[in-house]
Amino acid sequence: MELTDKTIVPRNITFGISNSPTRHWAGGDAMKTSMIDCLSIFLPEGERFFIRSLKHYLPQIRNEEVRNEIRGYSVQEAFHTREHEDYNRALTDLGYDVVGMEAQIKQTLRNDNDAVINLAITCAIEHLTMSFSMVTLANPEILEGAPAPYKRLWIWHAVEELEHSAVSLDVFDEVTAHWPSWKRYGLRISTFNVVLFKMSKMQLRNMAKYAEADGEVIDWRFQIRALWAVYVNPGFMRLGFVNIIKYFLPGYRPKVKSFAHLLKFGRAFIGREIPELAHDSVPLSSK
Ligand SMILES: [Fe+2]
Ligand SMILES: [Fe+2]
Q1: What distance in angstroms lies between residue 222's CA and the mean position of ligand 2's atoms?
Q2: What is the pTM of this model?
């Protein structure tokens, strides 16, 4: 199958992060490393939640294209979960309280919401993940100084997040097709606002816990430096801002045109850095 910008390719790769846990792997920059490592803390629990939220609707979706997308999506996210569990094991080995940092994420993503709310939460987090993936691929210098396994894992993850960036919204549109557009928009946006607020709060709280384990004093100076790292420099929020706010457009859909060049760069990186992947990559879905 020819790879197009909309092809979902689950790549079964192990990166072995836990074989060589590296403290402050982002070129020795503790704050930058903590900002990125704390994203990994969200992932195993989050990705299991996303798979459940989408698969819940599989029996009722008739559109074969969307059904295939859900299948491709679930395989990609399952591989991501496995690798980030390994990543987080490395963080535990380095002395970070992963269980404590995950606790609030688990509590927030408990599965007792209405299924459509879980789906809207998945769409919101997928949009943020897609935005941060675009930032990573557009600014690979963020990963400068990183040992190869860390760099490879984040580029691989970013590529696959772009490949499946439309899936949860495709499912949301199918499931809510009979709703008035104001109701669909209202749920999508109100959920996004809550998700953005809660995730930012958890991220900053986890960065403080992480720094505490490094022996840092958590005072107002630390809080300002953490806010600076997240929002300004390197500032995933600043760099991703233009894409993040597109979610507020009525009828928003991810535009392949806006990230095709990043996908090309990321796929070339994977092909060059991990050539054996060419044999493991099986395209599961293509529109
Ligand atoms: Fe993922
Ligand atoms: Fe994803």
Answers
A1: 31
A2: 0.94
Ligand nearest to the CA of 87: 1
Mean pLDDT to the nearest integer, 189-197? 97
- The rounded distance, in Å, linking the Cα atoms of 97 and 78 is 23
What residues does 11 pair with on adjacent strands?
281
Ion ligand 1, residue ranges at CB < 5 A: 80
pLDDT band at 286 (very low <50, low <70, confident <90, very high): very low
Would you kindly state where each structural domain of the chain is located, as residue ranges?
Answer: 27-277
Nearest-ligand number for the alpha carbon of 157 = 1
Q: SS3 of 8, please?
A: strand
Question: Cα(27) to centroid of ligand 1, in Å?
Answer: 24
Q: How far apart are CA 271 and CA 277, in angstroms?
A: 7
Token match 């943020």: residue? 128
Quote the tokens at residue 63.
């559109």
Q: How far apart are CA 14 and CA 45, in angstroms?
A: 19
Q: Please answer whether residues 89 and 149 qualify as being in contact, where contact means their C-beta atoms are separated by less than 8 angstroms.
A: no
Instruction: Please choose, from the candidates 44, 84, 100, the residue with its C-alpha nearest in 3D space to the C-alpha of residue 213.
Output: 100
